[in-house]
Design a protein that fits this description.
411 residues; alpha/beta; 6-stranded mixed β-sheet; 24 strands; 34% helix; 25% strand; binds flavin-adenine dinucleotide
């Protein structure tokens, strides 16, 4: 195996896999396999839901991003034969062989075995999830009669967001702003009801105290109902059952959205390598999978021991790991010593509705519309490739980033 003919196979075209492929360009024969044709900048999926950004901004086509020498396969990896060094894809009879493997298939929604959740709650991880939720909100609005009493409007427009982490906060505030705007535009009486349900005693447990106050103020202002120390017992087609202080409450809902946790992708689950109790693949500080020096693991599927807990399971971490991964894959092929790296927190940015955000950077918090602009700027810089960043930056600068109202369907 030499630097020019080493077969490097990367599974997953997200923050870990795509950025590793971009960094590695020019090394060996690279193949990237992803089950979607596009990369997804997930931190802005909320803005896609609200129409503040378009699909091409945050979900560019993988082939357009990659160097032409990188082979891209759109497909689902079913299995990896670590001993024979090859991967098996769905709908493809021939296995794909490799010399070096990078495993970065990310996470999936974890419904934690709650009755009805997987069947009836909506996930929020990919573009189609956002499309489906937007449609559900629009349909709920379309069903409200123009002369409906305020309490009927509120009942028909009740949405529950399960999970009080940053995702739950960002999603619920966007939904509340979008729905309230639509109610106003349609001259309906009353207002929508958006709730966050969280098992712990407070929201955003992983977030610093400095930024928490801004989050709590924003939720109050946008009138998102917060239900902490509350467990979801059941989700049905039309509602949700909650338990608080041993009392059960049933609520009719237009939709329940589940952002209460993740687990590793089924592919990572199927790999017979050392894992921790949550199923995360144990990797050395070089990102090599334990026992397999030619296999690297990163992103949401990998447990890297030397990382502050708040960084785990974030794009910030996957992105930083991709740099180390690319460097170590190259060193491994060249027979050079592999490196380790200390990963740092790059700051926190949370959107709070369609007009506000809060950004924590260098120990200082800014909030309001300015923070919203800062968040857009910060995320532009983290999009893949200079070319894409410039196109998106120009589009946001010149065309603006206003939300797209929830128009009645068929308009
Ligand atoms: C809505 C949302 C908002 C978020 N906001 C933030 C934020 O603000 N800040 C932050 O730091 N983090 C955020 N995160 C978390 C962050 O997105 C993840 O930590 C990050 O994407 C992990 O990168 P990854 O490469 O491990 O996985 P991903 O980016 O998820 O990429 C994995 C890729 O592999 C593909 N794949 C999976 N299985 C297979 C298979 N069998 N075959 C082929 N391809 C496969 C997937 O489709 C996906 O394209 C957010 C996540 C979500 C869902």
């Amino acid at each position: 195996m030499t630097q020019s003919d080493a077969r490097i196979l990367i599974i997953g075209g997200g923050f870990g896999g795509l950025f590793t492929a971009l960094d590695l360009a020019g090394t060996g024969e690279i193949t990237l396999i992803n089950n979607e044709d596009h990369f997804l900048f997930k931190p802005m999926l909320y803005e896609y839901l609200s129409g503040e950004v378009e699909a091409w901004h945050i979900a560019p086509d993988c082939r357009e991003l990659l160097d032409e020498k990188v082979r891209f396969i759109r497909g689902v990896v079913l299995n990896v034969d670590l001993d024979a060094r090859r991967v098996i894809l769905a709908d493809r009879p021939e296995p794909v062989p490799y010399d070096v493997l990078v495993v970065a298939p990310g996470a999936v929604t974890n419904y934690a075995g709650v009755e009805g959740a997987e069947q009836f709650a909506l996930p929020f991880r990919v573009l189609n999830d956002a499309n489906r939720l937007r449609r559900r909100m629009t349909e709920a609005l379309d069903h409200v009669q123009p002369d409906a009493a305020p309490q009927d409007t509120r009942g028909a427009l009740t949405f529950a967001v399960v999970g009080g982490g940053a995702s739950g906060v960002e999603l619920s505030t966007k939904m509340a702003d979008l729905l309230r705007d639509a109610v106003k535009r349609r001259a309906l009486k009353g207002e929508p009801r958006v709730l966050i349900v969280e098992m712990a005693d407070r929201l955003v447990p992983g977030m610093g105290e400095e930024i928490r106050k801004f989050v709590e103020d924003a939720l109050e202002k946008i009138r998102v109902e917060v239900h902490t120390e509350t467990r979801v017992v059941r989700v049905t087609e039309r509602g949700i059952t909650l338990e608080h202080n041993q009392t059960h409450t049933e609520l009719e809902t237009a939709a329940v959205v589940w952002v209460a946790g993740v687990r590793v992708s089924p592919l990572a689950e199927s790999l017979k390598v050392e894992k921790d109790r949550r199923g995360l693949i144990l990797v050395e500080r070089t990102l090599q999978v334990r026992g397999y020096p030619n296999v690297f693991g990163l992103g949401d599927v990998a447990f890297y021991s030397d990382v502050v807990p708040t960084l785990a399971g974030t794009a910030q971490l996957a992105l930083q790991e991709s740099g180390l991964c690319a460097r170590n894959v190259r060193a491994f092929i060249e027979g050079n010593p592999l490196k380790t790296k200390r990963f740092i927190e790059l700051g926190e940015a949370v959107s709070l509705g369609t007009e506000h955000a809060a950004v924590l950077s260098a120990g200082k918090v800014i909030s309001g519309p300015l923070a919203r602009q800062a968040r857009f700027a910060m995320y532009t810089a983290r999009l893949p490739t200079w070319h894409h960043r410039l196109r998106v930056g120009a589009s946001w600068f010149f065309e603006g980033t206003q939300p797209r109202p929830l128009q009645p369907l068929g308009f």
